[in-house]
Amino acid sequence: MENKRPLILISNDDGYHAPGIRKLVEFVKDMADVLVCAPEAARSGYSCAFSAVDYLRLKPRHNMGDTMVYSCTGTPVDCVKIALDQLCAERRPTLILSGINHGDNSSVNNHYSGTMGVAKEGCMKYIPSVAFSSCYYDENANLEPLRPYVQRIVGDVLQKGLPKGVCLNVNFPAAQKFKGIKVCRMTFGSWIEETVKERHPRGYDYYWVVGKYRNDEPGVEGTDQWALDNGYVAITPTQTDVTAYDAMDGLKQIYE
Amino acid sequence: MENKRPLILISNDDGYHAPGIRKLVEFVKDMADVLVCAPEAARSGYSCAFSAVDYLRLKPRHNMGDTMVYSCTGTPVDCVKIALDQLCAERRPTLILSGINHGDNSSVNNHYSGTMGVAKEGCMKYIPSVAFSSCYYDENANLEPLRPYVQRIVGDVLQKGLPKGVCLNVNFPAAQKFKGIKVCRMTFGSWIEETVKERHPRGYDYYWVVGKYRNDEPGVEGTDQWALDNGYVAITPTQTDVTAYDAMDGLKQIYE
């Protein structure tokens, strides 16, 4: 008998044991069959990196009741690749979800985020994909208020899909109540003062990558940072075609 | 006395010792002062990943004559961040270059590429940035035919800059002669059959990430793969604003 329920593949960049991914599974497990394949440990800032050199291992885990959970030693993108190739060869996921990330993935974090790496990888495989992130960096923050929003967005995307080459970057303000949803564009912002030099006890310099975020478009309505700053859930539709179409004519005049 | 020469920061993802980066330095060192800050070892497939957890170290190297060369223990993007913060605090680069990568970065490789990570990072810091890649995967391939193209593009960008939020992804066919330059859009393509399962002598399974590239728009003129397949140098202007503007109206009708 054919299985009529949709299959949702879930990954993240905080690791298979993170509270955020457990919460995401809890929110959607009545809507579909769920398979989790997530990094063995935290992989923040891994972007769309994959393991070109290192081998991967997959291990079944049993930390979410009857949900099938695998940990993978690689990056968030590796988790999608290996899940599709090794775990979903017989049954392609209807939807790929990522998160719930513990931390903000709006603005230029879209590029650095391993959470978004998962959604972009799904999108590059033409599978509708949504990343969820909360601006609470505290892993113990109460994510329960996200439930109706996550369920609504997942329900909509299960039913209607997404345009080819488009995935969703959904960010929630660090709040316990939201004013509604805004569909946004990515904010131009910058990370500055990004490294801190330290002196090792053995007498050499080393560096930590840290940084301060600067909004380069403060107060500009329509940006994802504006939505978050004003208490809205921000949906930033994100495309995998990164061609700068507006720059093409000028360049053609120079080079063709 | 103020230094009137431009400063070019160069990085890559193959490591500071790779033939491609040495060649790039050789091509441009008469056009500007050059500072190299590149990964200590190969970092293929690192995308825009940065080191959120691991510390970095910087070491001066002396493998390119009188060019200042530093190796960094981190990712390609880390190299840009630490160079701007620690090495270029007094003198901001006029231009950031990446490459010459040993391997094709057209199509969806744009997302996975550490070479493109360098250019995107520069672009997110509002510095004109260009990534160069050759479709020769062989490190010993003769890159000399790229010289006039690289010098022309670098000269143009030094003079005219690039639009805000736009960097260039320049790919060269695996050939010793080129038919000219085409300004292209990113090809939709897919990596398939991406993992290979192996059995470890100790009795467990492990996996390598490999894959075959499938062009999903074969023969479509105007795509970067088409240009490369037909002997042209492909310039794919790439933007850091990944908002899917065309999808916004439809989503606003659902969610706002």
TrEMBL record, chains A, B:
Q: Which GO terms describe its molecular function?
A: 3'-nucleotidase activity; 5'-nucleotidase activity
| UniProtKB keywords | Cytoplasm, Hydrolase, Metal-binding, Nucleotide-binding
* A Pfam family annotated for this UniProt entry: SurE
Enzyme Commission no? 3.1.3.5
Q: Where in the cell is it found?
A: Cytoplasm
Q: Any note on cofactor binding? A: Binds 1 divalent metal cation per subunit.
What are the TM regions of this chain, as residue ranges?
none
Where does the record place the Survival protein SurE-like phosphatase/nucleotidase domain?
8-191
Catalytic activity reported: a ribonucleoside 5'-phosphate + H2O = a ribonucleoside + phosphate
Query: Any keyword Metal-binding?
Result: yes
Q: Which domain of life is it from?
A: Bacteria
Q: Which residues bind a divalent metal cation?
A: 13-14, 44, 101
Q: Which cofactor does it need?
A: a divalent metal cation
Q: What does this protein do?
A: Nucleotidase that shows phosphatase activity on nucleoside 5'-monophosphates.
What protein family does this chain belong to?
Belongs to the SurE nucleotidase family.
| Identification of the protein by name | 5'-nucleotidase SurE
Record the organism: Hallella faecis
